[in-house]
Amino acid sequence: MTFDPARSALLTIDLQNDFLHPDGAYGRAGQTAEAIAALPARIAPLAAALRAKGGTYISAQFTLVPGPGGAPLIAPHLKKLRPFLGKGDFAPGAWGHGLVDDLAPADYTVEKVAYSALYQTRLEYILRALEIDTLIVGGIVTNGGVASTVRDAHLRNIHTILLSDGSAAFKGEVHEATLVSLGSVTPQMTCAQMLEALT
Question: Which residue, 83, 88, 102, 123, is most buried by CB atoms nearer than 10 A?
Fold first, then answer.
């Protein structure tokens, strides 16, 4: 597998305080997983190595836009799945919306309101403006935002490399099944393999 680091971007999906930190929205609700908590420390060396080769780090961050009175504009299916989400959670500019400390700051931050980082965001504009032709993708959850973004990139002829252990889901079997299903869409590498390729 060959790619030009200077024309590549590491894209992380939803590695935010409200998802990962114990004081975040998910942590307060007891929605945690060891595999998810391990991601920032595993991915941080890749961001540094890619930047050293002239590449870019982009963070896509899930966003709940505050509506009237500050209550979030939230899709009905998500409200049903995550009834604990409320005012202030994932709000732009709030601590919970921010990228976790191990990875901050990103070179570019993209707010997203749905699973895919390419849906109604400025991500594709950034990629074209910087002449980036490869996205190295990791984050959470594998079967949600990660899979949706990889598939959207595929439809746009944007080459991706999925970090197989740089992505995670709340259940290991769901993560593994998603990796299998994405096998025809994107090549996959471990974080260690990617780091070796960059050094």
Answer: 123
